[in-house]
Write a structure and sequence with these properties.
four-stranded antiparallel sheet, alpha+beta, PsdUridine_synth_cat_dom_sf, globular, EC 5.4.99.12, Alpha-Beta Plaits, isomerase, 280 residues, PsdUridine_synth_TruA_C, tRNA pseudouridine(38-40) synthase activity, 7 helices, 9 strands, five-stranded mixed sheet
Length: 280
C-alpha cells in the first residue's frame, strides 16, 4: 500500500553541494550523497519500499546554507495492506544520519493526502541572514593578526563575519526597505545562460533587521565582545538563485557609504545583470 508523507527537518549545509540533486537525463532515481535531497532518499531506500522514494523539497538552498525548519514530501509503498508508521520513519532516518555522521535531523513526519505537494503548498519562506560586524574600536594589526583570531569557534560557518569601515546600520536599514514589495530581481540573481529567459519577479513581504547575539558557550561569551551582531530576517513567497546573498552584499555597500540607499531603487527599476552598482 502506498502513502504520502510530509516531513520537517533541519540541517547544517556546510559539507553539501546544495539541498537539491542534480537533474540527469535518466531522471532522478539515483543516489546523490552530496545533496540533502539525495541523502534523505538514501535513508528511505533502507526501508526497502516497493517504489523509489523521491524527495520533493518545499524550498531549495545553495551549498553552505543551513536550514532550521525545512519540509519535504515523499511516497512510500509497502508490501501488503499496511503503511510505514511515521514515528518509525523519523526514528530510523535519524539513526541512519547519526550513524553516518550526517548533519540532518528529522524533526517530524506525518501522513498527508495523496495530492499534497510540499513545494506548491508552501505559502511563504523565511530566510535568516546573520551578520557580525567588527566593532570600530577594535584595532586589528594585519601584520600580526587576522580577523579570524577574533571569531568564536562555535560560530564557524554559522555567521557572516565582516570588517566594514564606517558601517552605518541605519543606512543599511533604509536601503533594505527598497526591496520590500513585488520587483524584478534580475539584477540580484546569479546569471545562468540556461535560465536567462526565466522570469525573476518575486515579492519580498518583509525585511526585519534587529540586534542579534552570538551562539556561543558561557566561557567564550565572557571573553568575546569584538562584534556587533545583526539578524536580518527576509520573508517572501520564493527567491531567485543567489538573491539573498547579493541583496546583503549590496546593503553592505550601502552601510559603508559606497552606495546610497536610493541606488537600490534604480537597480530594481532597470533589471539587468549590467545594472549592478555594487563594487566588486
Amino acid at each position: 500500500m502506498k502513502a504520502r508523507y510530509l516531513t520537517f527537518f533541519s540541517y547544517i549545509g556546510t559539507k553539501f553541494r546544495s539541498s537539491e540533486k542534480i537533474w540527469l537525463k535518466d531522471g532522478l532515481n539515483y543516489p546523490d550523497p552530496q545533496s540533502i535531497q539525495g541523502l534523505m532518499e538514501i535513508a528511505l531506500v533502507k526501508f526497502k519500499p516497493l517504489n523509489y522514494p523521491n524527495i520533493f523539497l518545499s524550498s531549495r538552498t545553495d551549498g553552505g546554507v543551513h536550514a532550521l525548519n525545512s519540509s519535504a514530501h515523499f511516497d512510500l509503498e509497502k508490501k501488503g495492506k499496511g503503511i510505514y508508521d511515521p514515528p518509525y520513519i523519523v526514528n530510523h532516518m535519524n539513526k541512519f544520519f547519526s550513524k553516518n555522521q550526517i548533519s540532518i535531523f528529522i524533526k517530524k513526519c506525518i501522513r498527508v493526502n495523496d495530492n499534497f505537494h510540499a513545494r506548491f503548498t508552501a505559502t511563504s519562506r523565511t530566510y535568516l541572514y546573520r551578520l557580525a560586524v567588527l566593532k570600530p574600536e577594535v584595532e586589528v594589526d594585519e601584520n600580526k593578526f587576522c580577523m579570524l583570531s577574533f571569531i568564536p569557534i562555535e560560530e564557524w560557518k554559522r555567521c557572516d563575519f565582516v570588517r566594514l569601515k564606517d558601517f552605518d546600520i541605519e543606512k543599511f536599514k533604509e536601503g533594505a526597505q527598497y526591496f520590500v514589495g513585488y520587483h524584478d530581481f534580475t539584477t540580484f540573481k546569479k546569471f545562468d545562460k540556461l535560465k536567462q529567459n526565466k522570469h525573476n519577479r518575486r515579492e519580498i513581504k518583509s525585511i526585519d533587521i534587529r540586534p542579534g547575539r552570538p551562539c556561543v558557550t558561557r566561557v567564550t561569551g565572557e571573553e568575546n565582545n569584538y562584534f556587533d551582531y545583526w539578524d536580518i530576517t527576509i520573508k517572501g513567497r520564493s527567491f531567485v538563485h543567489n538573491q539573498i546573498r547579493r541583496m546583503i552584499g549590496t546593503l553592505k555597500c550601502v552601510g559603508t557609504g559606497k552606495l546610497q540607499p536610493h541606488d537600490i531603487k534604480l537597480m530594481l527599476q532597470v533589471p539587468s545583470k549590467h545594472s549592478c552598482l555594487r563594487p566588486e
